[in-house]
Design a protein that fits this description.
single chain, about 80 residues, mainly alpha, 2 domains
Length: about 80
């Protein structure tokens, strides 16, 4: 039921015409909107470099999760990639 409420909120924000176009073109797809968009890191490459720097200079995974609003598994995937 929450998804229906979320769709109604989305419809109010973008307007009915845009909503209908999005629904028609993206029907059946899952769309994720991040909780926070950090202008400090305009792309994932820069963000991931900063995450690796933070991790390898001593920041703990729970702190990274909080700082970057990512899941534990995503943080581990980023810090293991070199």
């Amino acid at each position: 039921m929450s998804n229906m409420v979320d769709l109604e909120v989305f419809k109010k924000i973008v307007g009915e015409a845009t909503f209908n176009e999005v629904v028609t073109k993206l029907a059946g797809m899952n769309i994720y909107f991040p909780q926070n968009i950090d202008a400090k890191y305009p792309n994932k490459t820069q963000r991931n470099e900063q995450i690796r720097f933070d991790y390898y200079t001593g920041m703990k995974v729970p702190e990274l999760i909080s700082k970057y609003s990512l899941t534990k598994s995503r943080i581990y995937k980023i810090v293991e990639f070199k």
